[in-house]
What we know:
This protein has 18 helices and 22 strands. Helices cover 32% and strands 17% of the residues. β8 (195-201) and β9 (207-211) form a beta hairpin. By secondary structure, it is of the alpha/beta class. The longest helix is centred in the first third of the chain and has 20 residues, at 13-32. The radius of gyration is 27 Å and the shape is globular.
Amino acid sequence: xxxxxxxxxxxxxxxxxxxxxxxxxxxxxxxxxxxxxxxxxxxxxxxxxxxxxxxxxxxxxxxxxxxxxxxxxxxxxxxxxxxxxxxxxxxxxxxxxxxxxxxxxxxxxxxxxxxxxxxxxxxxxxxxxxxxxxxxxxxxxxxxxxxxxxxxxxxxxxxxxxxxxxxxxxxxxxxxxxxxxxxxxxxxxxxxxxxxxxxxxxxxxxxxxxxxxxxxxxxxxxxxxxxxxxxxxxxxxxxxxxxxxxxxxxxxxxxxxxxxxxxxxxxxxxxxxxxxxxxxxxxxxxxxxxxxxxxxxxxxxxxxxxxxxxxxxxxxxxxxxxxxxxxxxxxxxxxxxxxxxxxxxxxxxxxxxxxxxxxxxxxxxxxxxxxxxxxxxxxxxxxxxxxxxxxxxxxxxxxxxxxxxxxxxxxxxxxxxxxxxxxxxxxxxxxxxxxxxxxxxxxxxxxxxxxxxxxxxxxxxxxxxxxxxxxxxxxxxxxxxxxxxxxxxxxxxxxxxxxxxxxxxxxxxxxxxxxxxxxxxxxxxxxxxxxxxxxxxxxxxxxxxxxxxxxxxxxxxxxxxxxxxxxxxxxxxxxxxxxxxxxxxxxxxxxxxxxxxxxxxxxxxxxxxxxxxxxxxxxxxxxxxxxxxxxxxxxxxxxxxxxxxxxxxxxxxxxxxxxxxxxxxxxxxx
Length: 670
């Protein structure tokens, strides 16, 4: 599918404004010149492709001639019931292309006959070398055998291409990254270098620097710091010093001899000078130590090696059975190929994986597709440290002790083969309330649609509310919206899009604020009728209000939020876990962009608007016009002189006018 084009080096700031805060202009430009190959359009593959397309790479090529099955419908949001029996890549490509007009989406084919090039599960290194050549990153999402993964990784290393291999089987996920022997990361974590006020500097060799105890220095051995404005110890001013030893969260030694300097008096600042970092990855099949497993669930500390061996056993069984998934009667054969680990009942983990591996569950695919998509973007931009090198995650505790997993060849098979037929019926009857239809809200609604939550025939319902209107900047991260939706209500358009994903669900979108002023609509009868609530909000006050209602009416609450590359979730179960308002977070250091733009309600919101507008004038960017058509292509000094006049001429006269002045620096929280 042909894509719209921008001038070389240009970035559509209206579309990518939110992620520019995180990646920067250089990172976004690198991404816009990168091409990605996605092999295997499972639920995970489709989610990964969706994420990198929304992010704005140059082109995405899809390769998967496998026919769509009923089990694909519960994990892949771009496959429909009418697509069953057709090639997955061909069915998904047109719908994925709608996400971003600047990204070229194509299906890999070769020759005049139009047949797919080679085999998706080939173990030939030369064949894979020809396939991956020229791409910046290759994502493998449906590998069948160990030999296949080894061949793909060898080919990627030969062609200097980054590899991200991932798969979601039932409620277990696997991720492997290989970015080569020497991968340079320009910014390992995306955080600004900390600047701390210096409390003391010892006259020793090496010098011991202690910062005030209001802020931890956050340094590691090998980091570089620069001292400025020191009264005393003048010889250390404006020098870049290497951290030799971290003594405490507030002190560290540096490679400087301060024994002959004047005593430190006051006023010094220690600034962390961040630089590049070289990461070395091993090829697939190498011997990995325990540090190669990134642990994301500390309640299951011994689980990653167990899952690693379980996935290996599953691939061995599938490769010797034509790529098929094991049935219930085959579980013992898979366990026989499993190398037992030190974890208690590790064989049960392998057995559960084998029993549920045929299921492609939307929430698990969305989780893994999000993580793997981020790894692809790291490969394209060189920003943020990649996973080194394995990541495993599971939700096996959610499985029932016994279940009827017999497929029925319908859209609910992906849930049925994992949780059983009883769970399919329970999900269909649920009545859930979604507060917020932004980036998180769209993802939640998509997942609910694919798992069959709130179906009409069973008496279930999904109610979604959001007061926001759709803007162009929303399109780069809110998958349910298209350019034709700009200006319309988020809640109603999200409900319509969810209905298209699954016509059987009963979903309604309304524009109503949830708060004390709307208790005539959301009254006690309403809250009591719900089975649960999910919040996808951008401010603490609204979260606390919804939490109070769920607490009073004993309703489960699913809470979540994002800020840049960070995210959080909290599951509140009545009488079992603490509720959201039981603990309070520290005051937010940043104001969410959507709050600043659409609902400024505090004096600090207008102050922040002024700061952002001023920052637009004094920072050194490539020459560009002010949004008001004022200052352009000025030197830094001239900008500083003229910025106050521009602000005075364009500042909002009343608070509502600030709505039309977008923030240019703050990261979003949605």
